[in-house]
Amino acid sequence: MTEHIRGAKYWVFDLDGTLTLPVHDFEHIRLELGLPVGCDILATIEAKPDPEQRRLNHQLDLLEYFYAEQVVPAEGIKELLGSLVQRGCHLGILTRNKRDVALHCLEKMGVQHLFSNAAVLGRDEAMAKPDPEGINILLGLWSAEPGEAVMVGDFRYDLEVGRAAGLATVHVDQRPGRDWPELTDLKVASLVTLNQWLGF
């Protein structure tokens, strides 16, 4: 499977904590929204009655834009993404953020030109990860098969969505206690390490 990753032409990336440094304080977000500690934020909001759901989603949007202004690109992002594009690869984003927030982050990091807008999917364009709908949309956009694609992320949801859609999975993280070997085909410490492993 790792050799397949080297030859993959279609790359789906998580955004926060994968292409960016992890700046989101999710417990602060839960506290601001009045949600339980450790809950799945999107699923918890979705289970609320309509008026409360709209209010919480509006608050969440504001918090996401707040964090988007603090975005810091992960080391090696431009080298890795640029190398993939030079090799003729197609790049996509699958995030639980809103698409506008994701596009804003990509622009701030100087890599938006490497992604078509249609290949940046947020929670309004597809069911939230780990549901595979977003990956299936991207595969359809590219006329690609699951075996030609890779999912790259820093969290269990990213690896689960890759597995659910039949993609190879790359886990990018070096923090302790964040290992899901049963969901991971390749584990690397950083985008720099991934770039080196790919041999670009």
Uncertain runs are none
CATH architecture verdict of the largest domain: 3-Layer(aba) Sandwich
Tell how many strands the DSSP assignment holds.
Answer: 6
Mean pLDDT over the residues:
93
CATH top level of the largest domain is: Alpha Beta
The CATH homologous superfamily of the largest domain is named HAD superfamily/HAD-like
Helicity range: 40-55%
Q: Count of helical segments?
A: 9
Q: Give the structural class.
A: alpha/beta
CATH topology grouping of the largest domain: Rossmann fold
| Number of spatially distinct domains | 2
Give the ordered list of helices and strands: HEHHHHEHEHEHEEH
Overall geometry: globular
Major beta-sheet overview: 6 strands, parallel
Q: Compute the separation of the termini in Å.
A: 19 Å
Strand order of the largest sheet: 3-2-1-4-5-6
Beta-strand portion reads: 5-15%
Please compute the radius of gyration using only Cα atoms: 16 Å
Explain how this protein is built.
44% of the residues lie in helices and 12% in strands. It contains nine helices and six strands; from the N terminus they run H-E-H-H-H-H-E-H-E-H-E-H-E-E-H. It has a six-stranded parallel sheet with strand order 3-2-1-4-5-6, sandwiched between helices. Helix 4 packs parallel to helix 6. The relative contact order is 0.18. The mean pLDDT is 93.
What would you say about this model in short?
With 200 residues, this protein is an alpha/beta fold. It has 2 domains: 2-22 and 72-198, Rossmann fold (3-Layer(aba) Sandwich); 26-68, no CATH class. The chain is 44% helix and 12% strand.
